[in-house]
Task: structure prediction
Amino acid sequence: MARRPVGTLPDPLFTPPPEHQPLAARMRPRTLDEVLGQDHLLGPGAPLRRLVEARRLPSMLLWGPPGSGKTTIGRLLAEAVGARFAQLNSTMDGVAALRDVVGEARSGAALAGRVTVVFLDELHRYSKAQQDALLPHVESGTIVLVGATTEPPFGGGIIRPLLSRLRVFRLEPLGDGDLRAIAQRALADAERGLGGTVALDDVAFRQLIGYGSGDARRVLGILETAVALAERRAVDAGVVERPLAIAPDDVGRAAQSATLDYDRSGVISAFIKSIRGSDPDAAVYWLATALEAGEDPRYLARRLVISASEDVGNAEPRGLPLAIAALEAVEKIGAETNDEGLYALAQAATFLAAAPKSPSAGRAFFAARDLVRGEGTRPVPGHLRATAKTYRNPHDDPAAVDQPYLPKTLRGRRFYEPREAGDEATIRARMEERRRPTG
Result:
């Protein structure tokens, strides 16, 4: 089978005519000034704006939720510095496609002196071998890589040698004001949008923004589907007026349409909150929803590892090793085409959901970190230093447990407060016994 051609964007050969493009594609920002919600990166004096003004674009990673503008920003950055733009798909394009793009980049640099920006969406889905293949071309400057990911970049999905050569920029979810502006732009734009041919009342508009969940693409997808539903309703009734009135019910039905994009941030949030809320039935439902939508099982497994410490903690210490085992099982057995790997995810999800919960350990750490960041560090007590002669080893002298371990100015400070939940109740009783005055 012939390999899919790799082209630079924009390229009319691979771009369908506007009338065949979804509303979200037609309404993509055409300049960096049209991008909404990312002023911390693109506003006056912001990092990406300064790079564009200096016409020096480094390889980078754009990290942010779906619909926050990663692909659009990557394309516009390339255009702003006069670079060629090529786009690779992490699920379709392997090392062979990368080799083609690198060859084009070398030719472009030699013939026209133009750098090539290679945009790679969902970079964390590239295998280690594929990421290794990227490394020398990024390191040598043959290409400027603009990777995009919805996952925390330091979670293990991106190899360290490659990550160390990328500047990481975090994109924020779009706020309601940003989504409202994007929807209003689409409603008014006569060239690319709906050109005033439809109207939403206040209730329908609020629903549209609420269902958007910070995702511009989702907002425009819901709007486009709602328009189609309203037009069908008007045709069936024999009354088609302009502007076409979009009712709240049209928006609600559109938001539930199976043709809409997978609401990743919403489903993952519901999955974790169901575990935190001790509802194993809801947990496996949202787990199944995510997997059926094509979510990476390894990402779900990593979320379970986080939940095992963040939500369950010391109330059920077996939760963390079980979650880690589920992650290892998914990585070793596979799950994308092999259902056997899903048993481990289901086991971990239901166990964590049914387990007693305590966030006390994590809260203790962040309370201590906030203190250190806010007030600086204190000197280590003399008897705890590596060369101390006055330190008493509790293994040799049980009474030595009562010697102070915090800096003098923090004596008696409590960061860790165990709950009366599961195994943590035993820890709490042990600590209370230790703190009880003797004699």
